[in-house]
Design brief:
This protein has 666 residues and is α+β, with helices and mostly antiparallel strands. It contains 17 helices and 28 strands.
């Protein structure tokens, strides 16, 4: 619990100021658990959304974004109290992104675990809550040792507490040899986005002598001032400063301790800033300055210059520092005058601190300290609420600005939210948790860009298509598919090796995706080793055979005059093989002779028949002509053939008829 209520750890304050109810109102305190959504994406049986995580007030939280990584649970040092060995000991095999580290609770401070996880290059930390008590938002302890100083300011990864029932299921899945757990941690719904104006409440306590928290607070105010004033001047934010106070019980109102730490008869108190009642400044000095700063904001707001509050706070810290013994009313009023604010109105607003009356402004502040609606009590200093939700993360200018910018309704963000140091292209940060091949410069991460404003609103993990080669998968794991995959990315990422001019490859066209060792090799396709067929006695099993293993194959020698055949895994006689060759030669000779004979038949007999057929067709055509001119032809024939060997009375018709008979015979 000491991490959660760190401001009570100082024994001196407990001894002298136990009766000052610091940061607590007179009503019962209420605490709303800060949650973020954790979704288990795999394996299938664990897929579900969980809201059991509470994020610590450290690290950088990417509001509006998400972290998608594999979960790793250390084999040794599961508490994370000692540094892990190695540069990146929890990197998932075959993937280049870091892991979300799961650590056991207890044994050492929460933030020491986170620091060791960051050194091991984890992207986030889930710490197991061992007890059954309610989860609480973790606050960083005050700087009390060199150990805390060493790692606090350097923590950049987010962290969370999760309940044991969920953890038991995750651990069980990770026990399997090929087991994995893929988790998504979202900040997308962590801030409401009601409209084009973001409401900001900054709870603080103007005290530069309280150590680390006070220094961190003032450094933030100085670095964030310019951005805050741009947002306020443009009407993009409604900013309100708040200050915490306690009160003194009636039984101790007349005590010296109460009078030195309270104003208005014990109604509004703050512990001694130096925890020393005998010297230095008193608690009531801090209460008065808190009240003055509230009045500066109120008076400046009345003249539409509410952003002047940032100037006053930073100027006061420089000019009226406690450490330099200049923390006084006179110094404060000089700063008020330098900013052109009406000093009389400021005095009227603060009222009389010695009067036994209720101060309207401080009374309102005490009431607002109590949680309202979804907002819990203000218990930590300093605290920022954005759209009524507590900011979680580092007190650093860019981190806070990102959170505020995410509070705007989409497309209404001011230009300051579109600057390079605010915009987040998740694909440039650990590749958005998506699959990537660094060697081939291929990624499944696609930034989601709002084209109306040019702002990044997340990313999509989708397997790409490169040079007409499609990659298949869920976006977190992708593999090239199709025959062409073997031409890219070093043989499609599969095993390949060449020896003595012979190359074997595990990337084949026989399968659409993945790798498969070729015949003669064994392995998973990413690594293949030669199979010794001789030792396995699956080949060359004939009597008297001699087996010799070769790379990717084998050789088998038979005894005597025998020849080995791989297909039958047998030895046969070589003579039988020669006889077979002779029979084949005889058969081919017969076929060749038949072909030649056919050609001769065609050339002489068949062609003669065709020629005679043509002559007969011509004779038939002449018959019809002869019938019409028979008489003339007959007379002509007698004159022509007189004295020849033809008998008298023989006509052309008879000659033709004889010719037809000859054609018919043919």
């Amino acid at each position: 619990m000491e991490n959660r209520i760190a401001f009570l750890r100082n024994s001196t304050i407990l001894r002298f100021s136990f009766w000052v109810l610091f940061l607590i109102s007179s009503v019962s305190a209420r605490f709303v658990i800060e949650k973020a959504q954790i979704t288990v994406l795999g394996p299938q049986e664990l897929k579900a959304k969980h809201e059991t995580a509470v994020f610590a007030n450290s690290g950088i939280f990417e509001y509006g974004m998400a972290v998608i990584q594999y979960v790793a649970y250390p084999e040794n040092g599961t508490s994370g109290c000692q540094p892990f060995e190695g540069y990146n000991p929890f990197k998932p095999m075959r993937y280049y992104r870091p892991s979300i580290l799961l650590l056991d609770g207890g044994e050492c401070p929460f933030y020491l675990k986170v620091w060791h996880a960051q050194l091991a290059r984890a992207s986030a930390v889930l710490v197991i809550e061992q007890s059954d008590e309610l989860l609480l938002t973790m606050d960083f302890p005050p700087k009390e040792s060199k150990e805390v100083d060493e790692y606090k300011d350097k923590i950049e990864i987010p962290s969370a507490l999760i309940k044991k029932p969920l953890v038991d299921r995750l651990k069980e899945a990770l026990k399997n040899k090929d087991g994995y757990v893929l988790v998504e941690i979202k900040w997308i719904e962590s801030l409401p986005q009601p409209d084009s104006r973001v409401q900001c409440e900054f709870w603080t306590n103007i005290n530069d002598a309280c150590g680390y928290h006070c220094d961190e607070q003032m450094n933030f105010v100085k670095t964030f001032k310019d951005d805050a004033q741009i947002l306020e001047r443009g009407g993009y934010t409604l900013f309100t400063p708040h200050y915490t106070t306690g009160f003194c019980p009636k039984a101790f109102i007349e005590s010296d301790q109460c009078k030195s730490q309270c104003i208005n008869n014990g109604r509004y108190c703050t512990p001694d800033p130096e925890v020393n009642f005998g010297e230095g400044y008193e608690g009531k000095d801090v209460v008065l300055e808190n009240l003055r700063q509230l009045c500066v904001h109120r008076v400046a707001k009345e003249s539409n210059r509410s952003w002047v509050w940032w100037d006053y706070v930073t100027d006061f810290h420089i000019s009226c520092s406690m450490k330099e013994k200049r923390y006084s009313k006179d110094c404060a009023e000089d700063v008020v005058k330098s900013l052109g604010l009406p000093i009389e109105k400021i005095k009227e607003c603060t009222g009389d601190p010695e009067a036994d009356v209720v101060n309207e402004i401080l009374n309102t502040e005490q009431n607002l300290q109590v949680g309202q609606g979804s907002r819990h009590d203000v218990t930590f200093l300093h605290t920022l609420f954005v759209n009524n939700v507590q900011y979680q993360g580092k007190w650093e200018r860019t981190a806070v600005l990102k959170a505020i910018c995410f509070g705007f309704e989409e497309t209404t963000e001011p230009s300051i939210c579109l600057s390079d140091d605010v915009q987040i292209n998740e694909c440039l940060e650990w590749n958005g948790g998506c699959w990537q091949d660094i060697n081939a410069n291929i990624t499944a991460c696609k930034p989601y860009l709002n084209f109306l404003t040019g702002s990044f609103k997340g990313r999509l993990c989708q397997c790409p298509t490169v040079d007409d080669i499609p990659y298949k998968g869920d976006g977190f794991t992708c593999e090239a598919s199709g025959p062409a995959r073997c031409l890219i990315n070093n043989n499609g990422g599969c095993w390949s090796e060449t020896r003595n001019g012979i190359t074997f490859s595990a990337c084949t066209e026989s399968i659409d995706i993945g790798c498969e060792c070729p015949v003669g090799f064994s392995g998973d396709g990413f690594k293949c080793e030669d199979v010794d067929e001789c030792k396995e006695h699956n080949v060359c099993r004939c009597d008297g055979c001699t087996c010799e293993n070769t790379w990717g194959s084998y050789g088998c020698s038979c005894k005597g005059n025998l020849l080995y055949t791989r297909e039958q895994n047998l030895c046969i006689e070589k003579s039988g093989s020669i006889s077979g060759q002779f029979l084949v030669s005889v058969f081919m000779t017969v076929i060749l002779g038949a072909g030649i004979a056919g050609y001769i038949f065609y050339k002489y007999r068949f062609r003669s028949y065709v020629d005679s057929k043509i002559m007969c067709d011509k004779a038939s055509n002449l018959t019809s002509i002869t019938m019409k001119f028979d008489l003339k032809l007959n007379l002509y024939d007698r004159a022509q053939y007189k004295g020849s060997n033809l008998e008298e009375g023989t006509s052309s018709k008879s000659i033709l008829e004889n010719k037809e008979e000859t054609c018919s015979a043919n």
